Amino acid sequence: MQTDPIAEQISWLDDLITRPANANLFEAKNLLAIHKELSSRWEKENRLALLNALADQFGQEEVLRVIDQIIFTNLKNDWRGVGAEKGNSFENFLEILWKPLLDEGFEYTYKTEGNKTRFCVTKCPNHEIAKKMGAEKWLYHLVCLTDEPAIMGFNDKVTFSRTRTLMQGHTDCDHCYADHS
């Protein structure tokens, strides 16, 4: 049986992709059809093979539109709940999201000046998986694009920007958070 690094290493995506409420996000028939195929097959098939098959059937950009909507909506809502439960200060966000990443094999530095905190991520296990599979574009959408809706949901007074990612071939990821609280 073929291994599935996405299922093995990024299993938190399973819940996001397969939520029944995701069907409510799409009115266009083609996007609803993609969602239906994606959600019904996600946990049953090799994730990368499924994504490539859906791209062949519907077009990669259309599949990415569906993924982006699912990721954005669900992550924003999930992190809103985390912020409400644990306190939505930016310091809490750093503790909840960023600190555990070190134990998962991420390497980064960060610096706070005024209301801005800038991260420089030089090692990302998700990028390493994507690179081995030749799936950088897919994982950029599935993983990297979770950053903005996470902070938007957690604390809407903190803005996020980034100009480069490892996943897109850069030497680092430059996350910048500006706390306007």
Radius of gyration: 17 Å
Give the CA-CA distance, first to last residue.
51 Å
Question: What count of helical segments does DSSP give?
Answer: 9
Helical content, roughly? 55-70%
* Number of DSSP-assigned strands: 4
The percentage of residues in β strands lies in 5-15%
Strand order of the largest sheet: 1-2-4-3
Topology pattern, helix = H, strand = E: HHHHHHEEHHHEE
**What does the overall shape look like?**
globular
Number of domains: 1
What is the CATH architecture assignment?
2-Layer Sandwich
Major sheet, described briefly?
A: 4 strands, antiparallel
So what's the CATH class?
Alpha Beta
CATH fold-level assignment = Muramoyl-pentapeptide Carboxypeptidase, domain 2
Integer average pLDDT = 96
Low-confidence spans: none
Secondary-structure-derived class: alpha+beta
Structure notes:
Helices cover 56% and strands 15% of the residues. A hairpin with a 2-residue loop joins strand 1 and strand 2 (116-123). A 4-stranded antiparallel beta sheet has the order 1-2-4-3. The protein has helices at residues 5-9, 13-18, 29-41, 47-58, 60-86, 90-103, 125-133, 136-142, 147-154; strands at residues 107-113, 116-123, 158-162, 173-179.
Set down the secondary structure blueprint:
Blueprint: H1 5-9, H2 13-18, H3 29-41, H4 47-58, H5 60-86, H6 90-103, E1 107-113, E2 116-123, H7 125-133, H8 136-142, H9 147-154, E3 158-162, E4 173-179
Antiparallel strand pairs: 1-2, 2-4, 3-4
